[in-house]
Amino acid sequence: MTTEVLLDCRQVTKRFGGLVAVNGVDFSVERGRIVSIIGPNGAGKTTLFNVISGFYRPDGGEIWFEGRRIDGLRPDQVAARGISRTFQNIRLFQNMTVLENILVGMHTRVRASAIQVLLRSRAFLDEERALVEEAFRLFRFIGLRANPNELARNLPYGEQRKVEFARALASKPKLILLDEPTAGMNPQEMAETTQLIRRLRDELGITVVLIEHQMRVVMGISERVTVLDYGEKIAEGPPAEVRRNPKVIEAYLGRGAALGSAD
After folding, report:
1. Which residues of 202-241 are buried (b: 16+ CB within 10 A; e: fewer)?
2. Which of 106, 115, 156, 261 is deepest in the core (most CB within 10 A)?
3. Contacts of 57 (CB under 8 A, 6+ apart)
4. How many Å separate Cα 254 from the centre of its chain?
5. Distance between CA 147 and CA 150 in Å, rounded?
6. Is the dihedral of CA 22, 24, 25, 28 positive or negative?
7. What is the pLDDT of residue 124?
8. What CATH code is carried by the domain that includes residue 209?
9. For residue 107, is it left (φ>0), alpha (ψ between -120 and 50) or beta?
10. Rounded Cα–Cα distance for residues 183 and 186 (Å)
11. Number of structural domains found in the chain
Protein backbone atom coordinates (compact mmCIF):
# COMPACT_ATOMS: atom_id res chain seq x y z
CA MET A 1 0.00 0.00 0.00
CA THR A 2 1.38 3.40 -1.02
CA THR A 3 1.44 6.12 1.63
CA GLU A 4 0.59 9.61 0.41
CA VAL A 5 3.18 12.35 0.82
CA LEU A 6 1.36 15.37 2.23
CA LEU A 7 4.26 17.85 2.52
CA ASP A 8 7.34 17.74 0.31
CA CYS A 9 10.23 20.20 0.77
CA ARG A 10 12.81 19.92 -2.01
CA GLN A 11 16.27 21.45 -1.62
CA VAL A 12 14.85 24.29 0.48
CA THR A 13 17.36 27.07 1.19
CA LYS A 14 17.03 30.26 3.22
CA ARG A 15 19.76 32.88 3.61
CA PHE A 16 20.04 35.94 5.83
CA GLY A 17 22.83 37.98 4.31
CA GLY A 18 25.91 35.77 4.45
CA LEU A 19 24.30 33.29 6.83
CA VAL A 20 22.75 30.18 5.29
CA ALA A 21 20.11 29.25 7.88
CA VAL A 22 18.64 26.36 5.87
CA ASN A 23 20.85 24.77 3.25
CA GLY A 24 19.33 22.54 0.56
CA VAL A 25 17.07 20.58 2.91
CA ASP A 26 14.92 17.75 1.58
CA PHE A 27 12.09 16.98 3.99
CA SER A 28 8.85 15.12 3.38
CA VAL A 29 5.94 14.15 5.60
CA GLU A 30 3.43 11.40 4.91
CA ARG A 31 -0.22 12.01 5.67
CA GLY A 32 -1.29 10.84 9.12
CA ARG A 33 2.20 10.80 10.64
CA ILE A 34 3.73 12.43 13.71
CA VAL A 35 7.19 13.67 12.77
CA SER A 36 9.79 15.55 14.81
CA ILE A 37 12.55 17.91 13.74
CA ILE A 38 15.41 18.14 16.23
CA GLY A 39 18.83 19.76 16.38
CA PRO A 40 20.96 22.12 18.44
CA ASN A 41 20.00 25.75 18.90
CA GLY A 42 20.54 27.68 15.67
CA ALA A 43 20.25 24.56 13.51
CA GLY A 44 17.56 26.13 11.28
CA LYS A 45 14.51 24.33 12.63
CA THR A 46 12.25 27.33 13.23
CA THR A 47 13.51 28.96 10.03
CA LEU A 48 12.32 25.89 8.12
CA PHE A 49 8.90 26.21 9.80
CA ASN A 50 8.79 29.89 8.87
CA VAL A 51 9.53 29.07 5.23
CA ILE A 52 6.90 26.30 5.09
CA SER A 53 4.24 28.53 6.70
CA GLY A 54 4.95 31.51 4.44
CA PHE A 55 6.56 33.87 6.94
CA TYR A 56 9.81 33.69 4.95
CA ARG A 57 10.21 33.31 1.22
CA PRO A 58 12.76 30.61 0.38
CA ASP A 59 15.89 31.59 -1.54
CA GLY A 60 15.97 28.24 -3.25
CA GLY A 61 14.07 24.99 -3.59
CA GLU A 62 10.39 24.13 -3.72
CA ILE A 63 7.66 23.32 -1.19
CA TRP A 64 4.73 21.15 -2.23
CA PHE A 65 1.58 20.50 -0.22
CA GLU A 66 -1.04 18.05 -1.44
CA GLY A 67 0.61 18.09 -4.84
CA ARG A 68 0.57 21.90 -5.23
CA ARG A 69 3.45 24.34 -4.82
CA ILE A 70 3.08 26.71 -1.89
CA ASP A 71 6.49 28.34 -1.63
CA GLY A 72 6.07 32.10 -2.03
CA LEU A 73 2.48 32.17 -0.74
CA ARG A 74 1.54 34.54 2.08
CA PRO A 75 0.94 33.04 5.57
CA ASP A 76 -2.84 33.49 5.23
CA GLN A 77 -2.79 31.71 1.87
CA VAL A 78 -0.77 28.84 3.33
CA ALA A 79 -3.25 28.61 6.23
CA ALA A 80 -6.14 28.53 3.76
CA ARG A 81 -4.49 25.56 2.01
CA GLY A 82 -4.58 23.60 5.27
CA ILE A 83 -1.39 24.31 7.25
CA SER A 84 -1.50 25.91 10.70
CA ARG A 85 1.15 26.41 13.36
CA THR A 86 2.01 27.39 16.89
CA PHE A 87 5.05 29.43 17.89
CA GLN A 88 8.03 28.91 20.17
CA ASN A 89 7.06 32.10 22.02
CA ILE A 90 3.32 32.28 22.68
CA ARG A 91 1.62 34.78 20.36
CA LEU A 92 -1.86 35.18 21.75
CA PHE A 93 -3.86 38.40 21.62
CA GLN A 94 -3.38 39.17 25.29
CA ASN A 95 -6.25 41.67 25.58
CA MET A 96 -8.77 39.36 23.94
CA THR A 97 -10.68 36.58 25.66
CA VAL A 98 -9.93 32.89 25.32
CA LEU A 99 -12.95 32.44 23.04
CA GLU A 100 -12.03 35.46 20.90
CA ASN A 101 -8.51 34.11 20.42
CA ILE A 102 -9.91 30.82 19.16
CA LEU A 103 -12.33 32.62 16.83
CA VAL A 104 -9.44 34.58 15.30
CA GLY A 105 -8.09 31.27 14.00
CA MET A 106 -11.27 30.78 11.97
CA HIS A 107 -10.75 33.85 9.76
CA THR A 108 -9.88 31.75 6.70
CA ARG A 109 -13.24 29.97 6.99
CA VAL A 110 -15.51 33.04 7.13
CA ARG A 111 -17.75 33.18 4.06
CA ALA A 112 -19.90 36.23 4.83
CA SER A 113 -19.16 39.34 2.75
CA ALA A 114 -18.19 42.68 4.26
CA ILE A 115 -21.70 44.01 3.53
CA GLN A 116 -23.31 41.03 5.28
CA VAL A 117 -21.09 41.60 8.32
CA LEU A 118 -21.86 45.33 8.46
CA LEU A 119 -25.59 44.76 8.09
CA ARG A 120 -25.47 41.73 10.40
CA SER A 121 -27.51 39.79 7.88
CA ARG A 122 -29.23 36.50 8.64
CA ALA A 123 -26.50 34.62 6.74
CA PHE A 124 -23.78 36.31 8.80
CA LEU A 125 -25.55 35.68 12.12
CA ASP A 126 -26.06 32.01 11.25
CA GLU A 127 -22.38 31.66 10.33
CA GLU A 128 -21.28 33.51 13.46
CA ARG A 129 -23.37 31.19 15.64
CA ALA A 130 -21.86 28.12 13.98
CA LEU A 131 -18.31 29.42 14.45
CA VAL A 132 -18.90 30.17 18.14
CA GLU A 133 -20.26 26.65 18.63
CA GLU A 134 -17.15 25.27 16.92
CA ALA A 135 -14.92 27.42 19.16
CA PHE A 136 -16.58 25.96 22.24
CA ARG A 137 -16.10 22.46 20.85
CA LEU A 138 -12.36 23.12 20.44
CA PHE A 139 -12.27 24.63 23.93
CA ARG A 140 -13.59 21.35 25.33
CA PHE A 141 -11.43 19.15 23.08
CA ILE A 142 -8.22 20.86 24.17
CA GLY A 143 -9.22 20.50 27.82
CA LEU A 144 -9.02 24.16 28.77
CA ARG A 145 -9.82 24.80 32.40
CA ALA A 146 -10.06 28.59 32.06
CA ASN A 147 -13.25 30.61 31.71
CA PRO A 148 -13.82 31.15 27.96
CA ASN A 149 -14.47 34.84 28.69
CA GLU A 150 -11.20 35.28 30.62
CA LEU A 151 -8.58 37.56 29.06
CA ALA A 152 -5.66 35.59 27.64
CA ARG A 153 -3.14 37.65 29.60
CA ASN A 154 -4.61 36.40 32.89
CA LEU A 155 -4.09 32.72 32.14
CA PRO A 156 -1.22 30.62 33.51
CA TYR A 157 1.44 29.55 31.01
CA GLY A 158 0.11 26.05 30.41
CA GLU A 159 -3.40 27.33 29.69
CA GLN A 160 -2.06 29.93 27.27
CA ARG A 161 -0.32 27.13 25.38
CA LYS A 162 -3.63 25.28 25.14
CA VAL A 163 -5.38 28.37 23.78
CA GLU A 164 -2.70 28.62 21.10
CA PHE A 165 -3.32 24.96 20.22
CA ALA A 166 -7.05 25.61 19.95
CA ARG A 167 -6.51 28.67 17.76
CA ALA A 168 -4.25 26.65 15.44
CA LEU A 169 -6.96 23.97 15.16
CA ALA A 170 -9.67 26.54 14.43
CA SER A 171 -8.73 26.74 10.76
CA LYS A 172 -9.36 22.98 10.41
CA PRO A 173 -5.80 22.20 9.26
CA LYS A 174 -4.64 19.06 7.55
CA LEU A 175 -1.10 19.67 8.82
CA ILE A 176 -0.09 21.40 12.06
CA LEU A 177 3.42 22.67 12.81
CA LEU A 178 4.19 22.79 16.54
CA ASP A 179 7.25 24.81 17.53
CA GLU A 180 8.51 23.51 20.90
CA PRO A 181 5.03 22.71 22.24
CA THR A 182 6.29 21.53 25.65
CA ALA A 183 8.77 24.37 26.27
CA GLY A 184 8.56 25.71 29.82
CA MET A 185 6.12 23.03 30.97
CA ASN A 186 6.24 20.98 34.14
CA PRO A 187 6.15 17.15 33.87
CA GLN A 188 2.36 16.96 34.21
CA GLU A 189 1.76 19.61 31.55
CA MET A 190 4.28 17.87 29.30
CA ALA A 191 2.46 14.55 29.64
CA GLU A 192 -0.90 16.22 28.89
CA THR A 193 0.53 17.94 25.81
CA THR A 194 2.07 14.72 24.52
CA GLN A 195 -1.30 12.99 24.85
CA LEU A 196 -3.00 15.92 23.11
CA ILE A 197 -0.62 15.67 20.16
CA ARG A 198 -1.53 12.00 19.77
CA ARG A 199 -5.22 12.91 19.86
CA LEU A 200 -4.75 15.48 17.10
CA ARG A 201 -3.67 12.67 14.81
CA ASP A 202 -5.77 9.80 16.13
CA GLU A 203 -9.08 11.61 16.66
CA LEU A 204 -8.92 14.55 14.24
CA GLY A 205 -6.79 12.99 11.50
CA ILE A 206 -4.29 15.87 11.52
CA THR A 207 -0.71 15.26 10.43
CA VAL A 208 1.76 16.68 12.98
CA VAL A 209 5.29 18.03 12.63
CA LEU A 210 6.93 19.28 15.81
CA ILE A 211 10.18 20.94 16.78
CA GLU A 212 11.09 19.70 20.23
CA HIS A 213 14.10 19.71 22.57
CA GLN A 214 12.63 17.29 25.10
CA MET A 215 14.05 13.99 23.89
CA ARG A 216 11.66 11.99 26.07
CA VAL A 217 8.78 13.54 24.11
CA VAL A 218 10.48 13.11 20.72
CA MET A 219 11.36 9.47 21.24
CA GLY A 220 8.01 8.63 22.76
CA ILE A 221 5.71 10.17 20.19
CA SER A 222 7.50 10.39 16.82
CA GLU A 223 7.27 7.90 14.01
CA ARG A 224 10.09 9.61 12.16
CA VAL A 225 12.78 12.09 13.23
CA THR A 226 14.73 14.54 11.08
CA VAL A 227 17.90 16.10 12.47
CA LEU A 228 19.27 19.48 11.38
CA ASP A 229 22.66 20.96 12.24
CA TYR A 230 23.99 24.26 10.90
CA GLY A 231 21.08 24.38 8.47
CA GLU A 232 21.72 20.98 6.92
CA LYS A 233 19.97 17.65 7.36
CA ILE A 234 22.44 15.24 8.98
CA ALA A 235 20.13 12.31 9.77
CA GLU A 236 16.59 11.04 9.29
CA GLY A 237 14.72 7.89 10.19
CA PRO A 238 12.88 6.06 12.99
CA PRO A 239 13.61 7.44 16.49
CA ALA A 240 15.67 4.46 17.68
CA GLU A 241 17.83 4.58 14.55
CA VAL A 242 18.40 8.33 14.76
CA ARG A 243 19.26 8.08 18.44
CA ARG A 244 22.18 5.77 17.63
CA ASN A 245 23.47 7.83 14.69
CA PRO A 246 27.09 8.96 15.36
CA LYS A 247 26.55 12.31 13.61
CA VAL A 248 23.53 13.05 15.79
CA ILE A 249 25.34 12.09 18.98
CA GLU A 250 28.29 14.28 18.00
CA ALA A 251 26.09 17.27 17.16
CA TYR A 252 24.35 17.12 20.54
CA LEU A 253 27.36 16.21 22.68
CA GLY A 254 29.34 18.98 21.05
CA ARG A 255 26.85 21.46 22.49
CA GLY A 256 26.66 19.92 25.93
CA ALA A 257 23.31 18.13 25.64
CA ALA A 258 23.40 14.36 25.34
CA LEU A 259 20.75 12.99 23.02
CA GLY A 260 18.31 10.72 24.76
CA SER A 261 18.64 12.37 28.15
CA ALA A 262 15.61 13.41 30.14
CA ASP A 263 16.13 17.05 29.14
Report:
1. eeeebbbbbbbbbbbbbbebbebbbbbbebebbbbeebee
2. 106
3. 51, 71, 72
4. 28
5. 5
6. positive
7. 55
8. 3.40.50.300
9. alpha
10. 9
11. 2
Domain termination residue (choose one: 152, 172, 192) = 172
Domain membership of residue 87 (yes or no) is no
Q: What is the reported pLDDT for 201?
A: 95
User: What are the residues whose beta carbons fall under 8 Å from the beta carbon of 239, sequence distance 6 or more?
Assistant: 36, 218, 219, 222, 223, 224, 225
Picking from 224, 218, 174, 222, the residue whose alpha carbon sits closest to that of residue 200 is 174
139-143 contacts at long range (C-beta below 8 A, 24 or more positions apart): 139/98, 139/99, 139/102, 139/166, 141/166, 141/169, 141/199, 142/166, 142/169, 142/196, 143/192, 143/196
CB of 220 within 8 A of CB of 260? no
- Mean pLDDT along residues 83-110: 84
This prediction has a pTM of: 0.87
Asked if residue 177 and residue 77 are part of one domain, the reply reads yes
Q: Of 172, 197, 216, which residue is a domain's last?
A: 172
Q: Which domain holds residue 196?
A: 1-82+173-263
Query: By C-alpha distance, which of 263, 261, 255, 70 is closest to 177?
Result: 70
Q: pLDDT tens digits for 24-67? A: 999 999 999 999 999 998 999 999 999 999 999 999 999 999 99
| Closest alpha carbon to 191 in 157, 225, 216, 222 | 216
Tell me: do 72 and 198 sit in the same domain: yes
